[in-house]
Amino acid sequence: MPMKTRELAQLLDGQAHGDADLTFERPTHPDHAGAGDLAVALDKTLLARLSDSAARIALVGEGQTPPEGSVDAWVSVGRPRFTMHLLTRHYDIPPAISPGVHPFAVVEDGAVLGEGVAIGPFCHIGRGARIGDGCRLVSAVTIGADATVGPGGLFFPGARVGERVTIGALAIIHSNAVIGADGFSFGPPEQGAVESAKASGRVDVINEYIVRVHSLGAVTLGDDVEIGANTCIDRGTLDDTRIGSGTKVDDLVMIGHNVKVGRMCMLCAQVGIAGSAVIGDGVVLAGRVGVADHITIGDNAVIGAGSGVGNNVPSREVWVGYPAMPKDKAAEQFMMTRRMKNLFKDVSELKKRVRSLPGIS
Fold first, then answer.
1. Residue 67 and which of 25, 207, 210, 246 are 20 to 30 A apart at CA?
2. Which pairing describes strands 318-320 and 302-303: parallel, antiparallel, or unpaired?
3. Rounded CA gap, 55 and 191, in Å?
4. The predicted structure's pLDDT at residue 62
5. CB of 98 within 8 A of CB of 116?
6. Does 336 reside within a domain?
7. Residues 156, 160, 164, 167: is their CA dihedral positive or negative?
8. Burial status of residue 291 (CB atoms within 10 A of its CB: 0-12, 13-18, 19 or more)
9. C-alpha neighbours within 13 Å on the C-beta side of residue 43
10. Nearest-angstrom CA–CA distance, 7 and 11
11. For the residues of 269-335, what is the DSSP string, one character each?
12. What average pLDDT does the segment 352-357 reach?
């Protein structure tokens, strides 16, 4: 549906410039925009591209101006990232799924479905499960027995929710995420290789037999949690593994058994959190961060990409590196490492001079 420039400014709480009655059909990148499109140039590096774009309307950051004559109208906004939230939410295309229960879905006896649910083909709802009002299960979604899903959830194809798992309201679970697999908890009946290595630094014994510690807990997700594709969250041993409200988890993340993740965290792709770690509120773990078992990361800490966290991290600190350490210490270590080549060269030269002194053989 066409939108006027003035309507766009109102939607985004921005400022309209030029022909405020000019309309467009859809937002797109300046390089691909047609005459009826909105060229999104919130990144100032894209402003110059507007000169070669066919679009007549642009969206730019606050204080930015399109090249003269490049467009007939534009809207300027603050906080580009939040603007993209508002813009994409307005133009979002929801997954195509019909209301009701598809004839190829299986709903076990005792399951309770809320009002307005949509259950797509090949979904399976276990006995005693409860699905909240307005939930959408696109296709091939599994909800285990006695699991509880809050209202307004969206589950993409192949999402797996285990037995007794609790998911809050407005959850988004992407394709092939597994919530509630058993935890990776094993050990030998007698002292094994790992205990030997920890005690002596050597492997004095070997594992002859490995037994399983069963997972009696489940997983609890708070409200407004999003779980990315192919992410795995293991159930707890005795208590639940827990993810706080508002937390966003990227694709390919592994969260081990008994882990506690706080509210409003962001866990990026390939993060791995070992069992019984505690992640505070507002924590950001960048891509490929590894967190050791039983580690605590304080509220609002930020861990840089590729870091390996082996020690507790205080609140509001920025840690980077492998092993992870405070950012200033990591930078100092990096700089010292870069200077080692010159240091070795200087020491070698000094040794040559010392050997040339009289009486030094």
1. 25
2. parallel
3. 70
4. 93
5. no
6. yes
7. negative
8. buried
9. 5
10. 6
11. TT-EE-TT-EE-TT-EE-TT-EE-TT-EE-TT-EE-TT-EE-S-B-TT-EEETTTTEEHHHHHHHHH
12. 84
Residue 24's SS3 state is: strand
Q: Which residue, 91, 123, 138, sits at the end of a domain?
A: 91
Express each pLDDT in 264-307 by its tens digit: 999 999 999 999 999 999 999 999 999 999 999 999 999 999 99
Catalytic residue among 17, 124, 174, 257: 257
Which residue blocks in 52-206 are alpha helix, DSSP H? 80-91, 193-200
Per the structure block, which two tokens stand in for 172? Answer: 């988004």
128, part of any domain: no
Is 29 a known active-site residue? no
Q: What is the per-residue pLDDT across 206-262, written as a single tens digit (0 to 9) for each?
A: 888 899 999 999 999 999 999 999 999 999 999 999 999 999 999 999 999 999 999
Domain-terminating residue out of 91, 124, 148: 91
Residue 191, pLDDT above cutoff 90: no
Number of domains in the chain: 2
List the domain range (segments joined by +) for residue 85: 3-91
- Is a pLDDT exceeding 70 seen at residue 361? no
For residue 54, tell me if it sits in a domain: yes
Structural domain contains residue 61: yes
Assess whether the previous peptide bond of 151 is cis (omega < 30° from 0). no
